[in-house]
Structures are given as structure tokens and as C-alpha cells.
Amino acid sequence: MVRILGRNIYSTLTLSSFTFILLMWFALSYSGAVKELFLPSPGSVLQALGEMHEEGILVDYTLDSTYRVVVGWIMAVIVSIPLGMLVATSKKAEAILTPVIEFARYLPVVAMVPLTLLYFGIGDLQKFAVIFLGTFFQLVLMVSDVVAGVQRDLLRAAATLGASRWQIYRLVLMPASLPGIMDSLRITIGWAWTYLVVAELVAANSGLGHMILKSQRFLATDRMFAGLIIIGLLGLATDLFFKWLTRVVVPWNEKAGGKA
Amino acid sequence: MNKLVLNGVGKTFGTGGKAVEALSDINLCIAENELAVIVGPSGCGKSTLLNIVAGLEQADSGVITMNNRNIEGPGADRGVVFQSYTLFPWLTVQQNVEFGLKIKGINAKERQEIARHYINLVGLGGFEGALPKALSGGMKQRVAIARALANKPEMLLMDEPFGALDAQTRLIMQELLLSVWEKERTTILFITHDIDEAVLLADNVYVMSRRPGRIRCRIQVPIPRPRDHRSTVSPEFSAVKKEIMEMLWEESRTAANER
């Protein structure tokens, strides 16, 4: 059904869902239906944002958190893409790696946070480790699924056109996997944000998660909301960025530019 | 002169109790410049046979030679057009057709000329820069034919290439293939379950039995060339079609009774 919606109707609907949430917020907070302690008014959240900006922590903490997410996630991406391709294309690699990865990916990262603190302290390195552990194993499996799902006849066609094994790998398997890999990247960077905030909530000297936890101690609900809104907006921006990047990187994809 | 010879070719999938014999003692001689069509009931192993000739699958027994040389693995000397769409979606029509030439190491200018020639031959002049996602099913298969031919293969192997197309487009593609073949005279091994298609295209129709597939007989098609859609209403056409139909009907009925 989505496909037959015009572009204008689509954006209007998107906008109206946000407007609805905002209106509900206004109504519930300003009417006094929910106490300010539990649901701060939009005005006081804005004010909190202003104060945090004056204190210099708004931009700093946002950048700190973003930096941790991006570095930790990129480390996972760099290692997992080649491994995922290897697992998908070599039975031996599959036999060696898949059981270990299947085991590791069911270990909740949250349960490993104490260990990472012991190993890496409370600095950036520990945040990288948490994000890496949270996304790496999943990424290997996602990438290997994508690569294994490449239409077999494409590879066969390349072979009958005279391509060697390595040429098939480089000229067909890699480009054919790109759209699926882009999807996996978009999904896992979202998880990376979740794991980062968890790590920052447990132990950190800066970052949005740290800020939210500190605000709880002072019952500064307005700041907690401000933090959540920033995280949400960053997530939204990341998602839009990846959708744009996908259109740039794989403009040939049948799905590219899909329903929106 | 014999181009392709299959001698006692057999193929079994699986082992032990689950083993399924797909092909049994296939003997086949296809002459240079012949347009050979294999028809058979579904599941008779005709695609397996083509894959073996293409080198994509290995026979368990027997000998397969092209130009008196054994076939080992896939190669650019046997171009394949698959039933599924196999254009590389990230390459334009032109780049798709150039794919095999690039691998052969032919220089850019020559590559471009060869690709242009075959794109025009399949009637897609003007679409060089288009991406596959912008093409219809019939157009994609035209590019696939051009891509296979651009490699100047010794043989063109076609595995139900028009099977996914609608009836109108299929007829147009059959005529296109006939006209391309009149000009290029590449030896073609074509697989289909569509009897009309077989009779319209073939010099010789090879009828396969139900599984395990064997070549039941060879039927020469005496319809004069050049052929086009009008050939399908000639009396010769009906006679050959009837002969094949009766043979296949018998095969399907026996297969159904055995189940």
C-alpha cells in the first residue's frame, strides 16, 4: 500500500505522527495531568538544553558519544566484513568460525560490561570494546548471510563468461553483496548507540549516557528528557544518512530509493 | 562435423537410499552450426544436462567433448543464457556486454565496438547506458544473449531463456534468436519444455524421456529457413509438433502412473 502513496502524503503523515506526540506531550505536561517530576514540560526541556549548552556539555557530550559509537562500530565493521565473506565462501572457515560466533552472539553484551571495565577501565577504550562486542558477532553472521544469499546464477554467469574464482569474488560477489551489507551497517549502528548508552550509564566521565545517569541523581527529569531527545535525533539523522549513502553507493539497486 | 559429443553421460544426485539418477547414458552429437533443441517433461534432467555441458556441474560417467577436447569446468568458449535474469545489476547494458571481453583483456576501444555490434544485433541500440533495473524481462534476456555472443563462444547454451516471459514477448524473442542465429551461425544448444518453441527454432529436436533422462530420439525439423512466426502455421510444423507431443504425452503419462 505504501508504494502508491504520493510523496507529499507520505511526508504529511510522517510529520503528523511527530506533531501528535508533541501535542500529547504539551497536553499532559501543561495541563498538570502528569507531575513535572515525571514528565517535564517541553519548555523546561528546552531550558535544560539551553543550560547544558551554556555549561559547554551539550556539544561536548554529544561529540564524545558520537565519537565512541563511530570508532567502536567501525572497528567491528572492518573486521567483520572480510570474516563474513570468508564464512560465506569457505566451508572450512564456516566450520571454524560459525559455532564460536553463534555462541558468542547470545552472550548479552550488557553482561560483559563489568569485564570490559576490569580490562579497559572507564575510558573510551572500554566503550569501543562494548560496542565492538555488541556488533561484531552479529555483523559477521549478517554479512555472511548476505553474501551466501547472492543469486547463484550471477556467479555461474560470470564463470561461463570466463571469470576465474578470484575474479568472480571481486567483480561479482562483492558488488552483489553491497546492498545487503549497507542494510546490515544501518541496522548495527543503531545497536551500537544502545550499547554505548548502556556502557556510559554504568561508568563514564562524559557522554550522553553519563549525563542521563547524573541527572537521575538530582532528579533533573528535564535533562534526562533532553538527553533522550538528542539520542533519538542522532539516531534519526544516522538512519537518514545511511539511506542517503545507500542511494549513493548502490544506485543500481532495485530497492534503492524504495518507498519514500 | 561434430561440434559437441556426449558419450554415455550419467549423473546421480545424492548417495545411498536418497540417490536420484538424473541422467542415464546420454548420447548426443551436435553438428557445427546446428541449432539443437532438447525438449523433455519437467524434472527429466535437461537443465542438468546443459549445466554439465556448460561445465557448471560434473558428470559421474561418460565423456563430453567439444571440438574433440574434453570439457572440464566452465569457460568462455561456451556462453550460457540462463532462465533467471543474470545481468549484473550494477553494470550498464554496455558494461554487461563488455564483461567477458574485459576479462579476456581486450582493450577498451575494441571492447566498445564489439559490445555496440551485439547490442545493435539484439535490437537494443540506444540502451547502452541503461541499468538492468530499467529494462523489461525480454530486454534483459536480449542483453544476456548479446553478452554471451560478444565473447565469440564456440557454442551458445540456452536454458529455457524465454521461460519467464509472457507469450507475446516470447514469440518476439524466438524470432529475434532466429534472426541472430541466421547472421552469426553459432552452434546453439537450447533447452525448453515448450514444444512450439522447439519446433520453431530447431534443426533437430532431441526428445528426452522422463527421469532418469535419456535421449529418446532425434527429430529433424524440415521447415525451411528463414523462419518466423508464420512458420508455426505450416503443415510441416503441425506434423512435427504432433510427433513430439505424442512422445512426450506418453512419457508424462507413464511418469504419472509410476508415482
UniProtKB/TrEMBL annotation, chain A:
GO terms for cellular component: plasma membrane. It is found in: Cell membrane. The chain crosses the membrane at residues 12-33, 70-91, 103-122, 128-148, 193-213, 225-245. This is NitT/TauT family transport system permease protein. It is a multi-pass membrane protein. Pfam families: BPD_transp_1. Belongs to the binding-protein-dependent transport system permease family. Residues 62-242 form the ABC transmembrane type-1 domain. One of its GO terms (biological process) is alkanesulfonate transmembrane transport. InterPro entries: MetI-like, MetI-like_sf. It comes from Desulforamulus putei DSM 12395. The keyword Cell cycle does not apply. The keyword Nucleotide-binding does not apply. Keywords: Cell membrane, Membrane, Transmembrane, Transmembrane helix, Transport. Coiled coil: none annotated.
TrEMBL record, chain B:
InterPro entries: AAA+_ATPase, ABC_transporter-like_ATP-bd, ABC_transporter-like_CS, ABC_transporter_ATP-bind, P-loop_NTPase. Residues 4-235 form the ABC transporter domain. One of its GO terms (molecular function) is ATP binding. Keywords: ATP-binding, Nucleotide-binding, Transport. The keyword Lipid metabolism does not apply. CDD domains: ABC_NrtD_SsuB_transporters (cd03293). PANTHER family: ALIPHATIC SULFONATES IMPORT ATP-BINDING PROTEIN SSUB (PTHR42788:SF13), TAURINE IMPORT ATP-BINDING PROTEIN-RELATED (PTHR42788). This is NitT/TauT family transport system ATP-binding protein. It comes from Desulforamulus putei DSM 12395.
